[in-house]
Amino acid sequence: MSAIPEIRHRIKVVEDTRKITRAMYLISSAKMQKAMKMHERNLVFFRRVREDMRFIIESNDCGLSSSYFQHRPGKRAVYLVISGDKGMCGAYNTDVLRLAEKTIREGNHEQVFLFTIGLTAYLHFQRLGMDPDVHYLHIAQNPSLPAAREVTVQLCDMYENDLFDEAYVVFTNMVNSRQFTPQVLRLLPILREDFAGIETMHPYAGALEYVPSDDAALHSLAVQHLIGLTYSACAQSYASEHCARMTAMDASTRNADEMLGRLRLEYNRARQAAITQELTEIISGASSVRQA
């Protein structure tokens, strides 16, 4: 039987741990809700950009001469992998990194550029001997439109300079607050079928004239389209991370409650046994005195 001071110490330790896990759950809940609001606001802008792009493509029979729409048969690819900076979030990091590693190895590309967002992804690929070519700091814990624009502009510059042929982002898609799955999304090149099912803002009413040209307008919108995709991937990954952390911390809190229940029962039994032993000793001592 454990000593009463030892049980009391264990109860104190578990109570302190429970306070931490509960606080982390509440913090992640607030951050998850913030991230989803960011994502929803981005969707409004992103949807409008995609509607405009489809309108230009269809209403002007655009030849898609922009470099972002040109298919290249080469074997050079960029993978942008998004993970978290921290652990204690269940299998969130493990799942997305496992998918990224599998996708890269099965891609059979002759040349691969690796971009990482999140310290976990950076350290993971370093351990595999696949040192990331570019690593973005702090974006995983603070996704923002300027940060997404920085990443996208660098990718676009490399693509226009013919340094790679395809670009993919590996992130965690948040379906709802209880379901989030790793996903691979193609960023470049942009294909006509990417806009299937998107409704245009206005019905077609004849050819329109764009200044300086419809291709230039489409090229400019394509950059905004890519920024929206990158920002959406960052925001969804951020929300998924905190959703996973909420699940992990909630499970930890419940485990702490169960452990506290067992420890308090053990503590009460130990106290009862100690009191019983003391009473037994007192009664035995009194009997000895009377017999003497």
Explained architecture:
It is a single chain. Helix content is 60%, strand content 13%. Strands 3-2-1-4-5 form a five-stranded mixed β-sheet, with helices on both faces. β1, α2 (92-106) and β2 (111-117) form a beta-alpha-beta unit. It has five helices and five strands, in the order αβαβαβαββα. The mean pLDDT is 83. It is α/β, with parallel strands linked by helices and 292 residues long.
| Strand runs, count | 5
Mean pLDDT equals: 83
Main sheet: which strands, in order across? 3-2-1-4-5
Whole-angstrom Rg: 29 Å
The shape is elongated
Query: Helix coverage percent of residues?
Result: 55-70%
Strand count, sense and barrel status of the largest sheet are: 5 strands, mixed
- How far the N terminus sits from the C terminus, by CA atoms, comes to 35 Å
Protein name: ATP synthase gamma chain
Function: Produces ATP from ADP in the presence of a proton gradient across the membrane. The gamma chain is believed to be important in regulating ATPase activity and the flow of protons through the CF(0) complex.
InterPro entries: ATP_synth_F1_ATPase_gsu, ATP_synth_F1_gsu, ATP_synth_F1_gsu_CS
Family: Belongs to the ATPase gamma chain family.
Key attributes of the depicted protein:
292 residues, alpha/beta, 5-stranded mixed sheet, elongated
Task: Set out the fold topology.
Blueprint: H1 4-59, E1 76-82, H2 92-106, E2 111-117, H3 119-127, E3 134-136, H4 145-160, E4 166-176, E5 179-188, H5 214-291
Parallel strand pairs: 1-2, 1-4, 2-3
Antiparallel strand pairs: 4-5
Helix pairs in contact: 1-5, 4-5
Protein name: ATP synthase gamma chain
GO molecular function: ATP binding; proton-transporting ATP synthase activity, rotational mechanism
Function: Produces ATP from ADP in the presence of a proton gradient across the membrane. The gamma chain is believed to be important in regulating ATPase activity and the flow of protons through the CF(0) complex.
